[in-house]
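Q&A log
Question type: sequence-to-structure
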Amino acid sequence: MVNQVAEGAKISQLPILDLWVWLKPRGLDKLFDSVAPKDIEHFWKFVDESAEKRIKMEEEIQKHGPDAKNIRQDMFHYLMNAKDPVTGGPALSRNDLLAEANLLVVAGADTTAVTMCGFFFYISRNPQIYTRLTNEIRSTFDSVDEIRGGTKLSSCQYLRACIDEGLRMCPAGGAELDRVVLPGGQEVEGTLLPEGVHVGCPTWGFLRNEEYFYDPNVYRPERWIVDEKTGVTAEDVARAQSCFFPFSSGPYNCVGKNLAMLEIMVTIARTLYRMDLRALPGDTLGEGSPELPWGRRNRHVFQLTDAWIGLRNGPMVQFKKREV
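Response status: OK
Response body:
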């Protein structure tokens, strides 16, 4: 990924950053809170109330002694019971737990929602892809109850290809996850980046790199499957996979990616096993249009706005119970 970092990097010196961090606990946070939109206030309230309820539940369990029947072993259970290796005390304070709750709600809900919205946008507008996908799902499983994690679900190659293509076209976090160059600097493709520079590669950009993805703005699940009929070779798939990191990579690779993929696969497979769908006739919500700025005019591309997590409108999709 060195080429993508060099070509798509955001390089910036931020001398105000230290001042910003210093001001946050000294009144800047309260200023931002006072002008926060109502939706943001509702979100913070929801997260705080949910986290406090969960903390009290865990404290009651600890107070009355461990009982395997009462222990809810979710992520919050392990966060609350994590120990500091030096002091032996709790690793996370109450404020830390609230911050983690905020992150878990965004990372565990909004990211999946973006992926699902993009998936249904493209599936509902590509009849051939939709037909092939539903045929695969409905011929693999004998009942909706069979659709769960396991070998049968993993055998749905086209389902996985459709999801991967949706992740490529609609990355939940399209911006760069910037890093700070360490002391001594770092040379990237012949350019020396000095210490302290922030460098990042936008996910949206490298997932549309034409060197790795032919027709990058076209939703084409077949690009992920070696097939002589479609002309996709093993080299083509390997090239695409070498530039496919929707969950990031390395030490900062998303810890919940396997759970997220299982959730998405089960949800989509169960939905398409039981329901038929189509795009709402005449509706254009989520599409590009000539009235939008340059780069957002392709009506076949689902529109996302970067706000760390992708913001979107639509799509509008109609469902009806499948006729067996």
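Response note: The longest strand covers residues 275-279.
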